[in-house]
Amino acid sequence: MEIDQWRRDYLLGGLRRSELKPTPVEQFRQWLEEAVTGGMKDPTAMCLATADATGQPSQRIVLLKGFDERGFVFYTNLESKKARDMADNPQVSLLFPWHLLERQIIVYGQVERVSREDAVAYFQSRPLDSQLAAWASRQSQPLSSREELQKQFEEEKARFNGGEVPLPDFWGGYRVVPHSVEFWQGGANRLHDRFVYHSDDSGSWSVGRLSP
């Protein structure tokens, strides 16, 4: 397998400054809509990068569950590895790897917890089995077997017995408040287009082009 020879050119189109929206959230919304209409699977899947207190980075895929001018929201177990990392170091990064469209979006920012009311509203919108799974899984903790996990799930299912499943105290949401957002569009001959938005202290955005 000569993987050093695997390559392809990026020919779907370019990105010009005149096409950019005034804010990164507006630009993100346009690209997300194009990803959806373009038939991309899991366009809300994003790679969340965190670093622990020692500086060791780690990454995992999470799902975007909301966004607006305040930032990008996801939900998770509050005792997970990612949550522990963010408690030590709230600086994080998100990556949307939209290979089908030859695009990437990178968000740099700081996390904050969403309100419990927002977490409850989202949790109650999940399918019942997903709610039960949140109770059954002690995310990132050692697990002896798949059977043990299934047993925990069945125990939670019996405990709530088809009734309302409350939001666990150890489950909630985070908002990534961005200070810079990069939009990358693949280009022919590796001459990619990269634009990055930066916010200032007043919350205004400026945009500049980066060399590929």
UniProtKB/TrEMBL annotation:
Residues 171-212 form the Pyridoxine 5'-phosphate oxidase dimerisation C-terminal domain. Its cofactor is FMN. InterPro entries: Pyridox_Oxase, Pyridox_Oxase_CS, Pyridox_Oxase_N, Pyridoxamine_oxidase_dimer_C, Split_barrel_FMN-bd. Its EC number is 1.4.3.5. Binds 1 FMN per subunit. Pathway: Cofactor metabolism; pyridoxal 5'-phosphate salvage; pyridoxal 5'-phosphate from pyridoxamine 5'-phosphate: step 1/1; Cofactor metabolism; pyridoxal 5'-phosphate salvage; pyridoxal 5'-phosphate from pyridoxine 5'-phosphate: step 1/1. FMN binds at residues 60-65, 75-76, 81-82, 104, 139-140, 184, 194. It is an enzyme of class 1 (oxidoreductase). It comes from the Bacteria. Keywords: Flavoprotein, FMN, Oxidoreductase, Pyridoxine biosynthesis. PANTHER family: PYRIDOXINE-5'-PHOSPHATE OXIDASE (PTHR10851:SF0), PYRIDOXINE-5-PHOSPHATE OXIDASE (PTHR10851). Homodimer. Catalyzes the oxidation of either pyridoxine 5'-phosphate (PNP) or pyridoxamine 5'-phosphate (PMP) into pyridoxal 5'-phosphate (PLP). Belongs to the pyridoxamine 5'-phosphate oxidase family. This is Pyridoxine/pyridoxamine 5'-phosphate oxidase. It comes from Microbulbifer epialgicus. The gene is pdxH.
